[in-house]
Amino acid sequence: MSTDLTRKTADELARSLSAKEVSSVEVTQALVDRIGAVDGAIHAFLHVDAEGALATAADIDDRRAKGEQLSYLAGVPIAVKDVLATRGMPTTCGSKILDGWIPPYDATVTAKIKAAGLPILGKTNMDEFAMGSSTEHSAYGPTHNPWDTTRIPGGSGGGSAAAVAAFEAPLAIGTDTGGSIRQPGALTGTVGVKPTYGGVSRYGLVAMASSLDQAGPVTRTVLDAALLHELIAGHDPMDSTSIPDAVPAVVAAARRADVKGLKIGIVRELGGEGFQPGVEARFTEAVELLTSAGAEVVEVSIPSISYALGAYYLVMPSEASSNLAKFDAMRYGVRVPPAGVDDPSAEQVMASSRDAGFGSEVKRRIILGTYALSSGYYDAYYGSAQKVRTILARDFDAAFADVDVLVSPTSPTTAYPLGDKLDDPLAMYLGDIATIPANLVGIPGLSLPVGLAAEDGLPVGLQFLAPQKADDRLYNAAAALEQLLEQKWGGTLLSQAPELEATR
Amino acid sequence: MTVETLVPFDEALTRYDPVMGLEIHIELNTATKMFCGCPTEFGAEPNTQVCPVCLALPGALPVVNAKAVESAIRMGLALNCSIAEWCRFARKNYFYPDMPKNFQTSQYDEPIAFDGYVDVEVDGETFRIDIERAHMEEDTGKALHVGGSTGRIHGADFSLVDYNRAGIPLIEIVTRTIEVPPEKAPAVARAYVSYVRDLIGGLGVSDVRMDQGSLRADVNLSLKPKGSTTLGTRSETKNVNSFRSVERAVRFEISRHAGILDAGGKVVQETRHFQEDTGTTLSGREKSDADDYRYFPEPDLAPVSPSREWVEELRATLPEPPAVRRARLQADWGFSDLDMRDTIGAGALDLIVETVGAGTTPQAAKKWWLGEMARRANETGRDLDALGITPAQVAEIQGLIDAKRINDKLARSVFDGVIAGEGTPEEVVVARKLEVVSDDGALGAAVDRAIEADPDAAAKIRAGNQGVAGALIGAVMKEMRGQADAGRVRELILEKLS
To answer: HAMAP family under this entry (chain B) (predicted)?
Structure first.
């Protein structure tokens, strides 16, 4: 029974819960047990709150028994990336500098999850301050890919993706600054969505790059993603960049799942050289499935995409260098006195604390960003990057004038072995080449698992992109493709994943 | 610390021309902070007015206080500035323990208000001060250094930080270069700060209290040799906290710079602190051109784009500018230039306005506030508006005089009583039995006794020398403890001795 429960989708669980076929405590306990059994091999979680999750579950069961009106997902457990503030629960951002910090407040996303009655299983592992594409930059050790535990799960949201892929949680929250939801989604065979920038509140999301960060769902199905998307989205007066418009009807779009007459554009620049043949093959087959279902597929060009990676690696570290300045050991976080100094100044304490508290990738980006913003270089770097964003947005607008959605492989490669690119940051940065443009222009993107690469048997993701605020188009198209694929496979891709051996 | 040779002010001006720039920081009196909902009350227990946003807890985000934007626009309009149709906040990045985010959210190249001016008057001469910009920003927290003798960070045992002030909305008003006749520079600087205080005070958007730090002035000053057009290196004297100090700081810096330049030295670009007790400035942080704040547009905040309709609405509700108001009041009241200067100098303008509003003549109001009240303020070291008596009460007392129920002398006792908290003027008159006696029976008897007691005077009056009547009046008044109606007493004396 408990194995069954862990493998059910959030939608299935919600229906079972509402029909009182199963209790939230049973579901939550099953997942807590699963985490206990397999997380030693995966390390998806930095913090597990079994007690808190079970208490919420019991409360929801109680309220359901009393006949209270509950939200659709009430009682369905969820895992939250450790970059979102959770009141009373540790929040470290995968960094030593926040070791042991317990926020006194909830992020808006967390507050919405709590208000809807979803038991929070715990906080998931991530690259330190979301800087990385492999979750190897977590100060607490890497997460392993459930498909092959010698490989990375992608990053920075590797913990959230692995938790969902390893059946430790049916739902997870990730954050995506340059692909951190979609790329790990692709590498673990899960569905990952980056909503339109401003569609989900950033309040309480510890910022890496404010103008790029976006929280979103990580799930096993498109419908589950839509259900979670609707739950966390909406205008938030606490976030001045939050969109005031109504949330697009993503659940209805996921249920519609119809691509007949849909115009789909293949982005020419996101394929070919640098993309693994097995990835390209699965991508091409998926596009053929869409065509067979009545979609019209054309190739489109977005020439400025070749500048996106460069622009991203100027904007992101610039904003990060400023956002991370608050970690100065004055109000919270670890304080490390400088060695060999009797009477240290405040500045020396700040410096030694930051030296000890930040990892190498974080330091690298702070230095890059500080340089890019410094007087004399601002125009050449930050200023130029902002111009690229403007041009890129214009090019995407032009493309969306001709097609409804754009598609590309989500990641140029499948999951690579742990340690493979750790010493080559530039090679690792290339892993986000297909996902970064969406963040620079604020459009939504969704990664759907479309099969396993022939050469290594690892999951491949296909990315859908839609215009700003047209998130529903992603769900409609992805759900249609998902149905076609499941018919072909006779189930979800994840059901083909190797069984994980219990570690204790 | 090197001892600096100072060149006397007048002598310095024979060789150099001062160039000034003034920056005024004004804390707005909005109910909540610039980017969060925390209260802004002055003097609260440390760290009781803080939240995740103003403490910069990880993940917290700012949201602009619309009321602060409104205040900034009104201020900009009062300073004759243009109001930006679209502007943004920027981050000014630097590390300091009292600044929670380690960047200050400010405005950089896109201020809300720009290109304005004010006209200030010194000794009857008008000087136009050009305003470069007025921009919005947030205040920092406050560090308190405990231990050591100076209260400064050096030598302190430890430091405490109070973040209550962190995030309070500030407006910074920056002038363009001010070049006036050299000898007028200190007075013009003072007049400018004073004018801005009155202007902003009139808008009601700030308490503009220099003593509480809600108005802080920085004086930038450099000297250029006479005839030269190249600007010298400037010093920046921070947080000067009274009008008089602004004037003194300018004078001192002129003398100090001249001393350095005369000796062939170089003025260092640095922050300086004004010493209230000695009237001198002390070196603070050295500021180099290497200071790099790495400004960039604040990505967490939506741009500010006030509609033109709103700006015009705000313009329509601006109060009269201080200079216009003063000219109008002076004409209405028929005050001389000197009367007006004294009134303003004593800080009595608004008090007189209110006293007149409560039904007194301007002359009577002026007489009390600049005379009796100014004397009391002087003696007790208090401001006029802190004496414990209101304009309405002063007007009521004058009303009692006009009704001949008391006289000027008795009025002083009424002031004493009111200030001592004994009640309203009416209540004090009754309780202290201060009412003037004008009953002929009682007065007549007292007059008879006075005549009897001073036959010489009586004889002189009978002989037609009425000037001597004063002595007899004085005697009657003395007997009646000042409560006699002096006019009636005089009439009775003259009747009896005619």
So the answer is: GatB (MF_00121)
